[in-house]
Amino acid sequence: MKNPNGAASTPAGGSALPTPSAAASNPDWRRKYGGWIAVIAILAALCVIPFYMKFYHIELSIIYFMSVILAVSYRLITTTGDWSFAHIILQGIGAYATALLAKHVGIPFIVMVPLAGLVTAAVGAIVMFPMLRTKGFAFFIASFAFGEFIRMVWMKVNNPFGGTGGIVNIPSPELFGLKLTSSVNYYFACMAFMVAAVFIMWRLDRSRIGNAWKAIHTDDMLAECMGVNVARYRTLAFVVGSFFAGIAGALLAYRMGSIDPHNFEITQMVYLVIWVVIGGASTFWGPLIGVTILTVAFEWSRPLLEWRPLMFGSLLIMFLIFLPGGLESLLPALRRPPGEHYARFRRWLTTFRPG
Amino acid sequence: MDSATLIQTLLNSVVTSSVYALVAVGLAMAFGVMKMANFAHGEFFMVGAYTVYVLYQLGGFNFWVAVALAIPIVALLGVATERIIFRQTGANILAGFMATVALGFVLQVAVGRIWGVGLMKRIDTPYMGAADIGDAHVGWQRLLVIPCAIAMLIALRYFLYNAKLGKALRACAQDPEAAALQGINIRNMTMLAMALAGASAGLAGALMAPIAAITPYMGHGVILIAFIVVVVGGMASIGGAVIAAIILGFIHTFVATLTDSLIATMVGVGFMALTLVVRPQGLLGREKS
Predict the structure, then answer these.
(1) CA of A235 vs chain B CAs: smallest distance (Å)
(2) Mean pLDDT over residues A209-222, rounded?
(3) Domain ranges of chain B
(4) In chain A, where are the structural domains located?
(5) Contact assignment for B92 to A324 by CB distance below 8 Å
(6) Is residue B46 predicted with pLDDT exceeding 50?
(7) What is the rounded distance in angstroms from the CA atom of residue A89 to the CA atom of residue A304?
(8) pLDDT tens-digit series, residues A160-194
(9) Which of A3, A141, A191, A250 is nearest to B276 (CA)?
C-alpha cells in the first residue's frame, strides 16, 4: 500500500513515459513522476479524442465514465471487506432523486449532481444501520435483499416513482447557459465529475481513513482493539460509496432523459462485480483496468448479445479459479515459474477424476 | 375475508411454506458445511422445473417419472458445482459466492438458448380438478406439493439424525476441524451437502413446474425468498430454515392474497431487516457460528 500509484498506473500509460535518456539519467525520476505523467497524458488524450470520435463512441465514453465512477466507488466499499450487492440500486436512487428533483423542483444541473449524491448517501446510511449487524457473506445477502426491496418500491409506487414505466421527460441539463444535450459538452461534464470523483476516492484510499478501512478488512477484531470504531468506519465507507454511486446515477438520469426500474436490474450489478473482480480489488487501479478492458470487450461482443451473460459469467468463473487477484495480479503471476501454473492446472484437472 | 377464502389461503400458505422449506433447507445445509451459499440455488430450482417440462411435456414421460428424475439430475448439478467451483475457490468465501452468481447467469442463458426465452412454457396439468374443502376450492396439483415436500423433509431428517453419513454431515457443519480429526472426509461431506441441496431444490422446482410460470429467470424470485428464509432462520440452522419457511410462507400468502405478490415480497424483506436488527443470529441460530 506504500506507493500503489507509481507502480500500478505506469503500465496503463506506457506510451506516455518520459524519453529513455531522461529516465536513464535519473532512475528515481520515473518512479516518482511516471504515474502522474501517465495520468496527465491520459487526461490530455481524453480531452482531445471526442473531437475525432464518432457520435456513437462519444456516447459510449459517457457511459464508460459513469462505469468508472461506479466501479471505483464499489471497490471503495469493498476495502472494508463488505461486498455489497446493492450498488446499482444506489445508483438508481441517485437517478430517481435527480429525475424527481430536477423535474418537479427545477434544481439546476451543477447543484443537482452533488445533491443526488447526498440523497443517496443518506439512504445508504439508513440502509446500512440494520446491515451493520451482518458481516461478509450475510452482508452480501442482506444488501441484495434491501436492493430488491428498493427496486420493488420503484416498481410498485406510481406516485412519485412512476411504477414500472419509470419517470420520463427529465429536463435536459444546462451548465452556465451552456446546453449539455450535445454529446461533446456532456462528455466533458461527465469527465470532470469522473476525474473529481476518482481523485477524491484515491486520496481517501491513501488517507488514514482508507487505512482504517483496510485494517477492518484484514482483521476487524484487531482493528477494534487498536481503537478503530469498526461500525462507524464501515458505515462511512458505505456512505461515501453511496455518494459517488448517486453521482453516477444523476449523470445517467440526465443523459437518458428517462429512467425506469429495469435500468437497475441484478444483471447490471453482476456486470459491475465482474468489472471489479476481473480488474482486481486489492489496489485502487484494478477496477479501472477492469472497467476499461471490459467496456471494450462488451462492445466487441455486441453481435452475440444473447450469449453475453454466459460469456462473461464463464469469464468470471475462470478468473475466480485461475487468477483470483484479477488482472492487476497478472504481471506478478507471469513472473512466477511456469511449473507453478502447470501444477495449478493439474490440480484443477484432478477435480474431474472420480473419488 | 370470508371462510372459503380463508381456508383457501390457509391451504395455499401450507403449499408455499413447503416449497420454501424445500428450497431453503438445501441452502442452509450447504451453508452449514461450507460457510458459503450458492447463489445459483434458484437456478437449480429452475433446472428442476425444466427437467419436468422437457421429460413430461416434450418427452411424454409419466409425470412422477419426470419428478423422480429431476431429483438426481439437479443433485448431480450440485455435485458438479462443488467440484468445479467451490473446491477450486477453497477458503475464499466471496470468490466462491461470486462464481455461483456467474454460474446462475450461465445456466439462465444456456437454458434460454436451448428452449427459448420468449413465451413462458405451458405444462399440461397432470392432475386436473380441485378438492372441495368446506367452501374452498384448491387444485389437486397444488395439494400434491404438500405430502411430497413433507416426505422429503422427513427423509432428510431421518438421514441427518440416524444415518452414519448424515451424522458426519452434521458434525462437519458443527465444527469442520474436529470432524476432520474424527476421520470424516470434509470434501466428500461438502459434496454430499451440495448433492442434497440440489436434490431438494430440484424436487421443489419439479413439483412447482405445472403450477408456476416456467422461464429461465424464474430462479431470481426463488433465491431472494430462500435467502430471506435462511437469514431469518439463522443461516446454518436447518430447523430454523423450516420454521422460518413456515412463518414466511404464511405471511407471504396472506399478504399476497390481500394485496399483491410484490408487496408480499417487500414485507418478507422487511421481516428480514427486523430480524437482523433484533436478533442478528436468526431465529434458531447460535450466537457464533
Answers:
(1) 15
(2) 89
(3) 19-216
(4) 1-15+29-52, 60-264, 270-301+308-345
(5) yes
(6) yes
(7) 27
(8) 888 888 888 888 887 877 777 788 888 998 999 99
(9) A141
